[in-house]
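Bench notes, bay 3.
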Amino acid sequence: LSLVMGIAPHAVASCGSAFCLVNTSWDTHGAWSQSGLRLDLRYETINQNRLQEGRRRIAIGEIPRDHDEVETANRNWLASMDYTFNPDWGINVSLPLVKRTHLHIENDEAAATQTPESWKFSKLGDVRVLARYRLASFESADHKLGTVGLNFGLKLATGRFDMRNADGERAERPLQPGSGTTDALLGAYYAQVLPLQDLSWFAQGVGDLPVDSRDGFKPGKRFAADAGLRYDLTGQLGLLLQANL
């Protein structure tokens, strides 16, 4: 909580991208621990059409700027390949397909004009490669199984960052499908399986730390935290409740 309270005052908004933070790592959930390959495909839709100043909702153009944000619509596919080598080591490679539309109004004070500008594209984004290492496992007297481990890897600069609209206007960097930078990924997780109750729960945090800049742009640091509870209904079906920050 102290970390979140320290970060929040420095958060700034812009037009740009959005991704869901849902954790689909089956090993972290306690649903899978065997060696082998797993494939995951997720679709997410996010509409960014509510303008805020702090906790207050504002109207388009209420705060004077060189352009007024109107709406960004994100329709993303996220494909992941996860391979578990053994109980201690595993790796996950994920690739997003970004379908994004954006609209804002360009303000020209000298000419006293307002011109709508829009972008629409479907492009591959930045590849994320994340390794995991199990530090230790614990078993209590009542057969609760706990695991603690580390996540580490890179976000690679594979997505384009020079997309333009039909008028030749280059989209702002936060709006682009790729950041153009390489980021270090570092985090940790804890999971516990309660086999007698068919329950498991987990908590995980991962930091995204850009290590370079590109064409005068460097993304901000990001931190994602997940916590979830999974109930195993049958051997083939489970229910998952999850909270993300």
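Next record in the batch:
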Amino acid sequence: SRHVPGGTAQVGETIRKIADDLRQSGSSDLADELESQFKATLASMPRLHLTWADNSAGEDGFLVERRVGQQDPFLPLATLGPNTVTYVDMAVQTGVTYCYRVRAFKASRYSDPSNAACAMPKPVAPLGGGP
């Protein structure tokens, strides 16, 4: 199963369904505005983009683990399908350091974790410019 922190994929699907319903009822302008506002909000959210090499053969998937800062324990963040080599964490806050590691798994057996990689999301510029 795939887990998306913050539920952004589910929210996006719900927004699309509402927009489709609005279009079917003759309110295309409202549907376009709703989708535009959602995209703008999503674009302004902080995120960290992870990539790794798939060095496993025949894995069932990958477990992404995250810790906040350098001292907290690593906790499961997302379970991804086989051959996945990227993940976007949108459940982050600007100015906080997050560390990640990845484990391949087959059935209930997990590989040793990858080396930890740490990053801090940077502030996102507001849309529409400004002074």
